[in-house]
Design a protein that fits this description.
By secondary structure, the protein is mainly alpha-helical. It has a single domain, classed as Orthogonal Bundle (Fic-like fold). It has five helices and two strands. Strand 1 and strand 2 form a beta hairpin. The relative contact order is 0.11.
């Protein structure tokens, strides 16, 4: 990013600071385990650095889902109806209020996604059983 950026009341790092901040961020991320907590923290850290003029949130969500996928987890989708809570929780975190609300929302979305995946696997197992083929599934 080549210009100073602020969104609402949040001032993000100056362009001259971004390369060093991204280097630290990348070092941290490459050493961190691929867990949901790491994914959610990577999202928060990336947004706080705000390296681009536009698309930081989209990139942070893609990064979060990449970390989740590397750990064997499904992606977290922020649905349109989640957006107000997502933005509010992110603003609380960015204003120094902590990341509990943000992580809680993302863990809830991850849990819902896992439920969708498990339901789909159970339905596939049921269809296979009806067809005389058995697909083992952990319960």
């Amino acid at each position: 990013r080549y210009v100073n950026t602020n969104v609402g009341v949040f001032n993000f790092p100056a362009p001259v600071e971004i390369p060093a901040l991204m280097e630290v961020f990348c070092r941290w991320l490459s050493a961190a385990p691929s867990t949901p907590r790491t994914a959610f923290e990577a999202h928060r850290r990336f947004v706080a650095i705000h390296p681009f003029n536009d698309g930081n949130g989209r990139t942070a969500r893609l990064l979060m889902n990449l970390v989740l996928a590397r750990g064997g987890y499904p992606p977290v989708a922020i649905r349109p109806e989640d957006r107000p809570d997502y933005i509010a929780a992110l603003e609380i975190d960015q204003s120094g209020g902590g990341h509990i609300a943000f992580d809680k929302l993302l863990f809830e979305r991850l849990d819902q996604t896992l439920d969708i995946y498990l339901d789909a696997a159970r339905q596939a197992q049921d269809r296979s059983a009806e067809a005389g083929k058995v697909i083992p599934i952990r319960s």
